[in-house]
Fold this sequence. Notes:
The structure is a single chain. This protein is of the alpha/beta class. It is built from 8 helices and 7 strands, in the order ααββββαβααβααβα. Strands 3-2-1-4-5-7-6 form a 7-stranded mixed β-sheet, sandwiched between helices. The mean pLDDT is about 90.
Amino acid sequence: MSIAGLDAWLQTPQGRYVMAWEQARIDATVADVFGYNAIQLGLPQLDLLAQNRIPLRQVADASGPVDVICDLRQLPFAAHSIDALVMAHVLEFHDDPHQILREVERVLIPEGEVLITGFNPLSIWGLRRRLPNCPRDFPWNGHYLSVLRLKDWLQLLGFAVDLVDFGCYVPPCEHERWLKRWHFMEATGARWWSFAGGVYLVRAIKRVHAMRLILPSWKQQKAPRKVLSVVSQKDAESYDR
């Protein structure tokens, strides 16, 4: 999946601002994830698993400097073989996000973790896309997913969302000096309208419920034992006669 305009956007002040926040939050989140196999889907320009201590870490995408070239809708990994998976801005720029999530669920082990970042449509960044003079290149040409919709998709696949974090409250300015001037909105936004960050990070855990076998009741009901009673001497003499 080659996203047109992504490389150029990553070199802009706007791109560096967004990815700096995402890299810091992902680094802090994956630092304590353990296992044997970790996968990063998409965005090969950045090492999103740099702070993870899992021994085998690979980047998979349809093209670019990756370890595994593949279609993200058909991941070449065995079922229940991946401990952690990270994907940044994959679902909103792909034409089949549901199938990608189904593949993520298939390859993750039970209790495996997936981290997803995306642009928030309920933010100033999302509002920017609706303005008539908005550019049509990256990142404005994606199909932004709200956190509520993403949660619904994940829960349908058996995931439990245990972390949602929003960031980048500064308006999507193109020049660095304006990003710095609006920097005070980071603290203000996180306090007063935390749901309206320009981007979000969602962590979900794959839950697999254990089966409980209900066996038929094969034991036969035992006949009640006869209750022994004390026989008086008078009754015993009458029995003897």
